[in-house]
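Archive entry. Fields below.
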Amino acid sequence: MHRSRLVGILIDTPAEDADAAADFWSAALGATPYPAPDEEQFTVLQGAVPGLLTVVQSVDGPPRYHLDIETDDLEAEVARLTALGAEPVSQWKEAHTLRAPGGHIFCVVPVHSPAETFASKAQTWP
Amino acid sequence: MHRSRLVGILIDTPAEDADAAADFWSAALGATPYPAPDEEQFTVLQGAVPGLLTVVQSVDGPPRYHLDIETDDLEAEVARLTALGAEPVSQWKEAHTLRAPGGHIFCVVPVHSPAETFASKAQTWP
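PREDICTED_STRUCTURE:
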């Protein structure tokens, strides 16, 4: 058995616009922008949605949103989602990028919520 | 004064793939797919994220995600967000589509959460 849950909305933004996007989204959603320590491409919008990470990510590429699913077993979760029809696209460190039926990109990542949040909100898969 | 909050994640999917996307996302997130009455383009994924609507929308166009902000005063909220740098793109019925700094599309829509949810979770703007 393993567990997973939808953990975040990523607002992927071309690098030259990332600061403006972080300013806009934090003001728009009434959230506090919080640069992630040691991962300067991420600005977390604290409090935008309770229980869900909302993050502006600076990227080399066009603007897009993507979703992150966190799990306590990367291999089992990727296997579960590919069995449901997702296609593996790429892997960077421990983040697996997949494409859902319909064409949407999403990532499967290790648990990074607080342990009690993950324990109370994740679903368990056989 | 008016109020608003981030209310939903829309998984906009080309019409021919919308059923497959709804099947995938409901299984992936452990949510129950619920076709919206009288709005057959929407399939709500019940329970995907507490307090946030997660919806597969059948569209004429490429796959993308977008975010919805609900408000009790459309005119005031669109004015607030454009003052923060968003650009109006289009309007359909009461849904206003805007483009954020950085390029992301989002919509401003009337309140459609239950009244107590909106009252407890929305932010108030002067």
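CURATOR_NOTE: Chain B touches chain A at residues 5-6, 9, 11, 13-14, 17-18, 20-21, 23-25, 27-30, 48-52, 54, 56, 62-67, 69, 81, 84-86, 100-104, 121, 123 (CB under 8 Å).
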